[in-house]
Each structure stands twice: as structure tokens, then as C-alpha cells.
């Protein structure tokens, strides 16, 4: 039922926890696909220990960033639905996939299941309940665009922009443009780790600034057909242009 794609770059401190959270699931119809994006820490040593437990481990020879790593992972999927995880996050408990399977079957195999999650920081966990996002337009307009807040039918998957730190929003809008049916999961599925100081979302460097321009260009290039996706795209373009101007101002 589930292909679980996990891109990894230098998250050795969290990788073991991430993988174990999947392997301990009571539900067993899944495959794990890890794409290591040229890690320089001990990630590869950890992955070696899981060789006989992980279905696919791809070691990239050139930097692909998260979007590119997820695209690579997509090429190895065989199951009906795809889940994305970041390697510093983990599944909330051993019943996550069981719950998702139940929701999918009860809703006649929707294109997408919207996933609630836990915001985890400084030893505190807070459930972020996304179960009110019960239609495609609501999901499209929500601020929570991360791909790991969605369980998606494999034949509906849209690729991510590559060579950028800002791939999620562009893929989110494009993804929602091909989604026709959704279900919601009130149970927290992912524990989002906000204690990782090296997280991509906390970076603001030269790559971040180049990604800001690439992000705007990707938004300009994107074409969508559904009215609510078009409205969201226009809003994101305006926000991106404003951020570019503000960042330029900060550098002067």
C-alpha cells in the first residue's frame, strides 16, 4: 500500500530514530526508499546497518537537494500510495500506517489523504490538527504545504523542482491541481522535528538567496488549471516577489 520516501543529507543524529519508527509499524505492506544526498557525516555507516531492512537505498553522486532526492525516490516506488518523510522526523507511533490504511479504504481510495502532525520543539509536542482541510481547495490555500502532510496516490504524484531549497510550495500548488478527491486524518502521523539546527528550513545563506530567485522563476513557469490553484499561484508569486525585494533591501 505505502512507499515511504526519505531523503537524507547529514542527518546521522536523527536517521536511526526515523528508520526505526517505520520499521516498528504494525502494518507491514510498505517499502522504504532512502535517497542519500551526498552526506559527509556518518549517515552512510548507519544506512549500511539497515541494508537488509530497507528496500532501496540510493546514494547520489551529485548534490540533488530535497526536491531532486524525492524525485529520485519516486522512480523506485511500487506501492499504491506514497508518503514523504524527512530523515530528522519520525512517525508518531506504531499504528500510523494502520490508521492510514483504514482511512483510505473507508474513503474509497482517494487521491490524497491530508495528515495531521506533531510540532516538536524543546521536548514539547503539539498536535497540529489538519482534519478541517477536507476539500482540495482548502488544502491548496492552507499554509501547511509540506509534502509530508499528504499521503498521495502514486499515479497522481507531481515532481519537485530541483537545485533549490524552496521546492515545497511550487510542488504543492502543482500537486493540488491534479487532485480530485481527498480524505483527512485527525491522528498525528509525523513528528516534525524543530530541534535540528541544521534543518533546511532554518538555513539563510547564499544557497537560500539563490533559491529565492529560483522559487519565483519556478512559480512564473508553473501553469495550473483549477481556479483555486490559479488564485493560490498568484498569491505565492506576489509573496515571492515581495520577499526578493525585502531580501535585496536587507543586503544594501
| Bulk shape | globular
Estimated helix fraction: 25-40%
The low-confidence parts are none
- Under the CATH scheme, the architecture is Alpha-Beta Complex
Question: How much beta, percentage-wise?
Answer: 15-25%
**How many discrete structural domains?**
1
Characterization of this structure:
With 252 residues, the chain is of the alpha/beta class. The chain has a single domain, classed as Spore Coat Polysaccharide Biosynthesis Protein SpsA, Chain A, CATH 3.90.550. It has eight helices and nine strands. Strands 1, 2, 3, 4, 5, 6, 7, 8 and 9 form a nine-stranded mixed beta sheet that branches. β6 and β7 form a beta hairpin. α1 runs parallel beside α2 and α7 runs antiparallel to α8. The radius of gyration is 18 Å and the shape is globular. The model has no long low-confidence stretch (mean pLDDT 94).
In short:
By secondary structure, this protein is of the alpha/beta class. The protein has helices spanning 12-23, 43-49, 65-74, 96-106, 136-141, 168-176, 206-221, 227-251, and strands spanning 2-8, 30-36, 56-59, 81-84, 90-91, 112-121, 124-128, 150-153, 182-193.
Write the layout of secondary structure elements.
Layout: E1 2-8, H1 12-23, E2 30-36, H2 43-49, E3 56-59, H3 65-74, E4 81-84, E5 90-91, H4 96-106, E6 112-121, E7 124-128, H5 136-141, E8 150-153, H6 168-176, E9 182-193, H7 206-221, H8 227-251
Parallel strand pairs: 1-2, 1-4, 2-3, 6-9
Antiparallel strand pairs: 4-8, 5-9, 6-7, 6-8
Helix pairs in contact: 1-2, 6-8, 7-8
